Amino acid sequence: MIYLIAFLGGGLVIILLLISIFNRFVKNRNTVKDAWSNIDVALKRRYDLIPNLVETVKGYAAHEKTTLEDVINARNAAMAVPSDDINGQIKAENALQQTLRSIFALGEAYPDLKANMNFIDLQQKLNEIEENLERSRRYYNGTVRENNTYGESFPGVLFAGIFNYTHFDFFEAEAASRENVKVDFS
Question: Which residue in 13, 38, 71, 175 could disulfide with 99, CB within 3.0 to 4.6 Å?
Fold first, then answer.
């Protein structure tokens, strides 16, 4: 009788442990997805702002057609990534960020554009969005770190496959986006 009670007690402890591990996987995954949704909102605001920015720049830098097309193409590519493909969205956003930097480099090269109130207003709005994105990225990366650490350490690693553990990529700037934009008017 005592063996039966010990066996049932041990089984109950194991079941409670498995439930706890499963719930932690679910909590971590949902926290990462929630953090990503904050980024997604800011990205949509940025997507809406980009066409206005491009139109403003067009009037001053008409011969910079390639730069403007690159920005629109990068925006469209980023918008085309499915919302559930977080890792794909990160890659597309890094490419968009690089092309946006080239628009602001144009602003430096054209004094009339730099003084245009519409351009200044759009630039300020984009800066606000970028600051919001930076805060959201930090939060997202923290949740990704917690999720990935739990899924790759003991006891989570033992049950990761069974409980559909999802590994997420960090949202980091690519090396190319850290370099200064080169503007050549030759």
Answer: 71
